[in-house]
Amino acid sequence: MIPKVGLGTYLLKGQEGESIIQTALECGYRHIDTAQYYENEHNVGEAIKKSSVSRQDIFVTTKIHPDWLDKAQLCHQTEISLKKLQTDCIDLLLIHSPSTKGVPLEETLAEMIKLRDEGKIKQIGVSNFYADHLKEALDIVPDIATNQIEFNPSYLNKAAIDFCTKKNIHVTSFRPLAAGELLDN
């Protein structure tokens, strides 16, 4: 189960970032979302380690950078993420967005299945995928856990939401408050 509410950690770095993440955990957050691109996985790992919340009670999502989706890089980068996060298993590993280097999706997902079979990740997901990429992904991995896309009251992303709903793919929203722009609306 993916917790319904999570803390996105984009821009949370250093001691301040660790403190915010740790405070969120103490306040009841149990889903922490990071990415290699954020360059803060080590801060997330430290915050979890310093928290009074057991790692088993925390759901950790991270994302593989779109430059590193070939078989060798994906495996290597996942190992780096595991070390930085100070964990033996990532609860949800996402492809941050389709490959920027033309790596076939089949190659990437086959490696992710292998990582799941080895127990290094629990679930496979995608981010910033739309219908064409999702159709291809579902032919390879029929149990895509989630598609993380921008979704908020000012950006409904209806076509992507409808497609995911039809295919039983959970949608994880990033920028649910439009980076704060909706707070005064």
Task: Write the SSE topology.
Elements: E1 7-8, H1 14-26, E2 31-33, H2 41-50, E3 59-64, H3 71-85, E4 90-95, H4 105-117, E5 121-127, H5 131-140, E6 146-150, H6 158-166, E7 170-174
Parallel strand pairs: 1-2, 2-3, 3-4, 4-5, 5-6, 6-7
Helix pairs in contact: 1-2, 2-3, 4-5
Explain how this protein is built:
This protein is α/β, with parallel strands linked by helices and 185 residues long. It is 38% helix and 18% strand. The chain has a seven-stranded parallel sheet, covered by helices on one side. Helix 1 (14-26) packs across helix 2. The N and C termini lie far apart (32 Å). The mean pLDDT is 95.
In short:
This protein has helices spanning 14-26, 41-50, 71-85, 105-117, 131-140, 158-166, and strands spanning 7-8, 31-33, 59-64, 90-95, 121-127, 146-150, 170-174. With 185 residues, the chain is an alpha/beta fold. The longest helix is centred in the middle third of the chain and has 15 residues, at 71-85.
